[in-house]
Write a structure and sequence with these properties.
Chain lengths: 316, 289, 318
C-alpha cells in the first residue's frame, strides 16, 4: 500500500546554484497518500521539486523517488511522475485535447491509447466541449484544469502539484480541491502538493514537510497531530458569556477569548457535558463546539519562529 | 444494470521505444504547418523551378522538340549547358526559396512553446532537450530537403539517364556538391531560426530577426570593412559565406572577399553561437536572477 | 447629482458601469462602514470594476459614488485619503523597493524628511526593511506583493482598497498581513479587500459583499446574511455517540426540517428553521439524556456556503 513504501527518500541532498546553497543536507523518508510541501518564499520548495524531476543535479547526497535514483534513473522517474507547474504552462494555439495527447505520447503511450487516455483525463477533470478550443482562449480555471489533465493522462504513480489553486475563483478552487481529494482517495497515486495555502494542504494532505532556508524544519503526520489536539476545545456561545467563563474556569479549564470564540483546555476529569451544565446554569446556549482545527497553522508558525539551527524534527 | 463511476487509473501497459519519441514533435508540427494554406501553397510553388529545370534538361536532349518550334540548339547553347554552374544556379534559387519557407515555418516552432512556458511540460517527461531540438530541427530539415537536394538529385538522375553515364564521370563533383551544399545550408537555416525564436519568443519579431540576420548583418560587416579598412567584415555576411563555400564545392569561380578558411570559420561560428543560445534559452524552468 | 455626504462610509448609489455593451456592474447600492469588508465573487462578476470605480480609475456610466464624502471625480482629494493596491504585478523599471514607495510619497507632497520617515515606517510594517535597497525586479513574488502593500499604506490613508492582496504570500506572511489589516481596521480605517480564499474572508471580515455577474447578491455581516437566506434552513452538524437517539428527540420539535445520519454512525446533520430554538433544545438533550457530544458546528454559516447558495456552482463565466 502507498503508505508503507516511501515515495521519496532523501539522503543528505544538497543543491547549489553557483556558490549559493539552496538545499542543504535534506534527509528523510516521505510516505503517505498526499504529502504537503510548505515553506516561505525562497525556502527551496520549487528547487526540491525540480531536483526530484532531474532538472538540477545535486552537489552532494542523493534522493530516490519511488525507489529510483534521481541522478542515474531520472528518465524512469519522469515516466512515472506527473507534474503540474506553478506558472502558466501551455501552448496557446493547441487545443486541450491536442496538448494532452501529445504530452501523453511523449510520456511513452502509444498514439491511440494516448488519445483515449487524454479524453479520459479531460473528462475526469471536467473539461467538456471546451477541450476542442484553443487553450489561449481559456479562463484561468480552465487552464489549470488542462494542466492537471496533462499531468494525469499518462497514468503516473506520483503527482506533483505546484500551487494548483493559483488564481482560481471560489467555485474553481472547490472543484480543484475536490478533484485532488478524489485522486488521493483512489489509492493508486501519491501526491506531493506544494502550496502557500495552509487550508488546501490541511484539506488534502496526510503528511507535511516544511522547509526553511533550504533545510527541513518539520516533517509530521497531520492525522496524529489532530488526534493529539482533542483536549483543545473552541466554543461559541449565545448570550452573556462572562458568567459562563467564570463558571468553566472554576472547573479548572484554562480559557482564552479570541475573536468572539472561547478557546479552552479541558483538564483531566472534566468532560464536555460539564461545560453544558455550566451553560444551562448561566442560561446561555452553546452554539459551536469543536476541536481546535488549525493545527497546521500552529505547526507552521512554530517551525518558522523556533529552532534557528533547523535540525530535523521527525515527528512521524 | 450497472453504474460506472469515473475513475483515475495508473497506466501499466506497453510504452513506445524511447528512441522514437523525438519523432512525435515533427508529427504534431506538420499537422500545424500544413493546416496553413499559405504555407502549403508556397511549399508547392517551391517545386516550380525544379520542374522548369527538368523541362530544360529534357529540351536539351530532345532537339526535335525545339525543331517543332523552328529553333536550333545552337541558339541556346549558353542557357542549356547542363554543368556545375547549372546546378549551382539551381541551388541559389532553391536556397532562396528555402530561406523564405524557413521564415514561414521556423519561428512558430519554438516560440509557441516558450511564450507560455510550455517547456517544463516537455522536460518533466522522459524527454531531453536534445531530443526536443532534434525533433524541431527535423521539421525544417525534411521540408527544406524536399525542395533542395531531393529534387536536385532527381534532376541529376534525369540528366544522367538522358546524357549517359559519361556526363557523370565528367562532372563527378556535382552530386556531392549539391548534397553537401544543401545540407549545410538547411542545417544552418534550421539552427538559426530555432535559436532566434528561442531567444526572441515572439513569432513576428523572430521572423523579422531572421530576415535581419541575412540582410542587415551584412551591412554591419560592410561598415566594419570601411571603418577599420579591413576586408574580413564579410564574415558577418552569411550569404557571402555560403556563396564562397558553394563555389568551392562546385569548383566554379567566384569573386568574393572571403577566403575559404574564413568562410568555414564564419559558418562554424554562426552554428556554434546558435547552439549556445539554444542551450541557454531552453531551460526546464524560468530562470529568476 | 444629489450630494451624498455621508462622511464615514463608502456609498454607491444606483451605480452602473458598462463597457460598451458589456456589463461591468448594474444598479449597485452599497454603504460600506469602517472595518474590513470583503468583496467576493467569481471571475467576471464585477469585483475589479467596483474597486476601480471606488478609486476613480473608472467613471460610472450612471449613478453616484462618494468615498468618505469625497467624490472619486476629485482624485487629488481622494488619493490623499485612499490607498490602492492593484492585483497586477508590474512596477516601474529599475527602482528599488525604497525608491518605489518614497517616490509616491513625494508625489503626495511630503517633504524629504517626512517622506523618508513614512517610507521606513511602512517598510517595517510589511517586514521588508532589509530588502528595501534592492531592485524590485529582483524580489520574489511575495516580496513584490508586500512592497505594493507598503506603497498603499505609506501615506497613512483612511481607506485601503486592496485587490487580492495576499496573492503569492506564504502562510507566515499571510498571517502577518492579516494581522496588519486587522490592526488598521480596528484603528478606524475602511479596508476593502477582494479575495477568492473564502475561509480567510470568513476569518477576517466584518462584512462581506457578494457579487455575481455584475449584481450585488448580498451584503452585510456574514451571520446576518446567512439568516436572511431563508430558502435554505440552517444546517448544523453534530457529532456524538448516539446520533439516532438525539435525532429521535429532536424530531419532537416542530422547527426541525431534516435530520440525516452520517454513515460512520457518529454524525448527524440537522436542518432547522430556527437555529436558536434548536440550540436550546440540543443543550437540554445533552444534559437530560447523558449524551457524549464531540462537536457541534453550523455547517453553512460561512461565506463558502452562502456563496454556494446564492451564486452556485457555475457563477460567472464558465
Amino acid at each position: 500500500m502507498a503508505s508503507i513504501t516511501p515515495v521519496i527518500e532523501l539522503s543528505g541532498l544538497e543543491v547549489c546554484f553557483g556558490r549559493l546553497r539552496v538545499l542543504e543536507n535534506l534527509c528523510g523518508s516521505l510516505s503517505g497518500r498526499a504529502i504537503g510541501l510548505l515553506g516561505p518564499n525562497g525556502a527551496g520548495k520549487s528547487t526540491l521539486i525540480r531536483t526530484l524531476l532531474g532538472f538540477h543535479p545535486p552537489r552532494q547526497g542523493t534522493a530516490r523517488v519511488m525507489g529510483h535514483d534521481i541522478v542515474r534513473e531520472s528518465r524512469v522517474i519522469r515516466s512515472l511522475t506527473g507534474y503540474m507547474p506553478e506558472n502558466d504552462s501551455f501552448i496557446a494555439d493547441f487545443s486541450a485535447i491536442r496538448l494532452t495527447r501529445m504530452m501523453a505520447e511523449l510520456s511513452g503511450l502509444p498514439p491511440r491509447l494516448a488519445l483515449e487516455r487524454a479524453h479520459e483525463a479531460l473528462y475526469y477533470v471536467g473539461l467538456g466541449e471546451a477541450r476542442y478550443r484553443k487553450i489561449g482562449t481559456y479562463s484561468m480555471g480552465m487552464k489549470q484544469l488542462a494542466k492537471l489533465a496533462q499531468s494525469l493522462a499518462h497514468g503516473p504513480r506520483l503527482l506533483i502539484l505546484d500551487e494548483p489553486t493559483n488564481g482560481l475563483d471560489p467555485p474553481a478552487r472547490r472543484r480543484m480541491l475536490n478533484l485532488i481529494r478524489e485522486i488521493r482517495d483512489s489509492g493508486d497515486v501519491q501526491i506531493l502538493l506544494s502550496s502557500h495555502l495552509l487550508y488546501d494542504v490541511e484539506l488534502c494532505c496526510d503528511e507535511v514537510l516544511i522547509l526553511k532556508q533550504g533545510k527541513i524544519a518539520v516533517y509530521c503526520n497531520l492525522e496524529e497531530e489532530r488526534k493529539a489536539n482533542m483536549k483543545f476545545i473552541e466554543l461559541e456561545t449565545d448570550g452573556e458569556s462572562a458568567g459562563f467563563l467564570e463558571g468553566i474556569e472554576k472547573l479548572g479549564c484554562e480559557c482564552a477569548l479570541y475573536g468572539g470564540r472561547i478557546k479552552t483546555v479541558l483538564p483531566p476529569g472534566i468532560e464536555i457535558r460539564d461545560l453544558y451544565k455550566v451553560a444551562a446554569d448561566c442560561r446561555i446556549r452553546i452554539r459551536r463546539l469543536d476541536y481546535k482545527r488549525d493545527s497546521l497553522q500552529d505547526i507552521f508558525l512554530k517551525a518558522m519562529r523556533g529552532d534557528e539551527d533547523g535540525s530535523l524534527q521527525t515527528q512521524v | 444494470m450497472a453504474v460506472y463511476k469515473r475513475k483515475f487509473s495508473p497506466y501499466q501497459g506497453e510504452r513506445t521505444p524511447p528512441w522514437s519519441r523525438w519523432l512525435i514533435i515533427p508529427r504534431y508540427a506538420y499537422a500545424k504547418v500544413f493546416a496553413s494554406r499559405i504555407t502549403t501553397a508556397f511549399f508547392v510553388a517551391c517545386f516550380v523551378w525544379p520542374l522548369i529545370c527538368a523541362a530544360v534538361i529534357y529540351i536539351r536532349y530532345n532537339v526535335s522538340f525545339l525543331e517543332t518550334f523552328g529553333l536550333q540548339l545552337g541558339d541556346f547553347k549558353g542557357v542549356l549547358a547542363i554543368n556545375a554552374r547549372f546546378f549551382l544556379n539551381f541551388l541559389y534559387i532553391q536556397g532562396f526559396l528555402s530561406f523564405l519557407l524557413t521564415i514561414l515555418v521556423g519561428p512558430g516552432l519554438v516560440s509557441a512553446d516558450l511564450s507560455h512556458n510550455a517547456l517544463p511540460l516537455y522536460l518533466c517527461r522522459p524527454f531531453s532537450r536534445t531530443e526536443y531540438i532534434l525533433g524541431k530541427m527535423l521539421v525544417l530539415l525534411i521540408l527544406l530537403s524536399a525542395i533542395t537536394w531531393a529534387p536536385g538529385l532527381l534532376l541529376i538522375g534525369l540528366q544522367t539517364s538522358l546524357a549517359g553515364l559519361g556526363w557523370l564521370s565528367e562532372h563527378p563533383l556535382v552530386a556531392p556538391a549539391l548534397l553537401v551544399g544543401s545540407a549545410i545550408w538547411i542545417v544552418t537555416l534550421s539552427l538559426l531560426s530555432l535559436a532566434i525564436s528561442a531567444w526572441v519568443r515572439w513569432k513576428p519579431v523572430a521572423a523579422a530577426a531572421l530576415f535581419g540576420v541575412f540582410f542587415i548583418l551584412p551591412g554591419m560587416g560592410q561598415i566594419i570593412n570601411v571603418t577599420l579598412e579591413v576586408d574580413f567584415g564579410d564574415i558577418f555576411n552569411i550569404i557571402m559565406v555560403f556563396f564562397t563555400i558553394w563555389a568551392w564545392l562546385f569548383q566554379v569561380s567566384f569573386r568574393g572577399d572571403l577566403t575559404l578558411v574564413e568562410a568555414w570559420l564564419a559558418l562554424s561560428g554562426f552554428c556554434g553561437l546558435c547552439l549556445l543560445i539554444l542551450n541557454r534559452k531552453l531551460q526546464a524552468y524560468e530562470v529568476v536572477s | 447629482m444629489a450630494s451624498i455626504g455621508v462622511q464615514d462610509r463608502i456609498v454607491f448609489q444606483n451605480v452602473s458601469k458598462f463597457y460598451g455593451e458589456v456589463l461591468g456592474i448594474n444598479r449597485v447600492n452599497l454603504s460600506i462602514p469602517a472595518g474590513i469588508t470583503s468583496l467576493v465573487g467569481p471571475n467576471g462578476s464585477g469585483k475589479t470594476t467596483l474597486l476601480n470605480l471606488m478609486t476613480g480609475l473608472l467613471q460610472p456610466s450612471q449613478g453616484s459614488i462618494s468615498v468618505l464624502g469625497i467624490s472619486p471625480t476629485e482624485p487629488g482629494q481622494l488619493f490623499r485619503r485612499a490607498g490602492y493596491c492593484s492585483q497586477f504585478d508590474s512596477f516601474p523599471r529599475r527602482l528599488t523597493g525604497y525608491q518605489f514607495i518614497y517616490g509616491f510619497l513625494r508625489i503626495h507632497g511630503f517633504g524629504h524628511p517626512k517622506a523618508d520617515e513614512l517610507t521606513w515606517q511602512s517598510l517595517r510594517q510589511v517586514k521588508l526593511e532589509e530588502a528595501a535597497r534592492r531592485k524590485v525586479a529582483g524580489y520574489s513574488k511575495g516580496m513584490r506583493q508586500r512592497v505594493k502593500l507598503a506603497q498603499a499604506i505609506a501615506h497613512q490613508p483612511d481607506i485601503l482598497i486592496l485587490d487580492e492582496p495576499l496573492n503569492g504570500l506564504d502562510p507566515l506572511a499571510r498571517a502577518e498581513m492579516i494581522s496588519l489589516f486587522q490592526q488598521l481596521a480596528s484603528s478606524g480605517l475602511h479596508v476593502v479587500i477582494s479575495s477568492h480564499i473564502l475561509h480567510e474572508v470568513d476569518l477576517i471580515s466584518d462584512q462581506v459583499v457578494l457579487l455575481d455577474s455584475g449584481y450585488v447578491v448580498a451584503e452585510g455581516a456574514i451571520r446576518g446574511v446567512r439568516d436572511e437566506v431563508k430558502e435554505h434552513p440552517a444546517q448544523i452538524l453534530v457529532r456524538c455517540d448516539r446520533p439516532s437517539q438525539v435525532a429521535a428527540r429532536l424530531f419532537q420539535e416542530d422547527h426541525i426540517v431534516e435530520a440525516s445520519l452520517h454513515e460512520d454512525q457518529r454524525g448527524l446533520l440537522i436542518r432547522t428553521r430556527d437555529s436558536n430554538r434548536f440550540y436550546a433544545c440540543l443543550n437540554r438533550v445533552v444534559l437530560e439524556d447523558q449524551v457524549q457530544i464531540e462537536t457541534v458546528a453550523p455547517a453553512d454559516e460561512d461565506v463558502e456556503s452562502v456563496y454556494q447558495y446564492l451564486i452556485g456552482q457555475n457563477g460567472g463565466a464558465a
